[in-house]
């Protein structure tokens, strides 16, 4: 019913121009975006790095979360996709994972609600019997043209989704995680580089990075690795559902996207999550790894 997005591997084939498009609600729908985000390269094969692991991925229905779900499934993991209400995207993600021969559970609800987070973990355990990897990825972005227009309710909502949910899911999964398990949070370049109109989002993502460092220290003696990924500009549903037309010059212009001169596609971000989820990163804790095409370097 819903077609998968274009699958490309060559850099010159990756979309670099994104026409302005508006979606009225967050976190946005991937299947209506033009061009579609690229979630996986064609012909890729797994190497079993996550064989029979179970991963919970918030925001796993689309964008970076979907790309991570596809890569993890290709590496042998079963996936619990947690999402808000983007049912069409979630169905597409589930079908693709099942095509890879892995199991996929979809769980819809508000991650800003601690009760739902507990229920999502319980549902995953009931279906799969274990949780090895937690990806706290889902987020909201509120564009504030003038910070004086930001209400207390809006600020609370951003923090509930972007940082409170990390606490809620971490608390819920910890009793069931074994040594070797991994928690990976999604921070952002915005946490370190200020952007006009993104104060609440940037602040919440800065909190994610700080939480990551603290949890890494406190959970190290339990053998649970905690790290974060900080993507730069990436073409996901968060963009058309969050940003006004003037930001499309920022996201769509070939000349204003850092040294690589384009925004990232989700599948280019996903391998960092695989590295942090696998035994390859056994000696890595408390890190926030930037994946931003060199933009943070100011080049």
UniProtKB/TrEMBL annotation:
SMART domains: PKS_KR. Pfam families: adh_short_C2. PANTHER family: NADPH-DEPENDENT ALDEHYDE REDUCTASE 1, CHLOROPLASTIC (PTHR48107:SF16), NADPH-DEPENDENT ALDEHYDE REDUCTASE-LIKE PROTEIN, CHLOROPLASTIC-RELATED (PTHR48107). This is SDR family oxidoreductase. Residues 53-238 form the Ketoreductase domain. InterPro entries: KR_dom, NAD(P)-bd_dom_sf, Sc_DH/Rdtase_CS, SDR_fam. Belongs to the short-chain dehydrogenases/reductases (SDR) family. Keywords: Oxidoreductase. It comes from Paenibacillus hexagrammi.
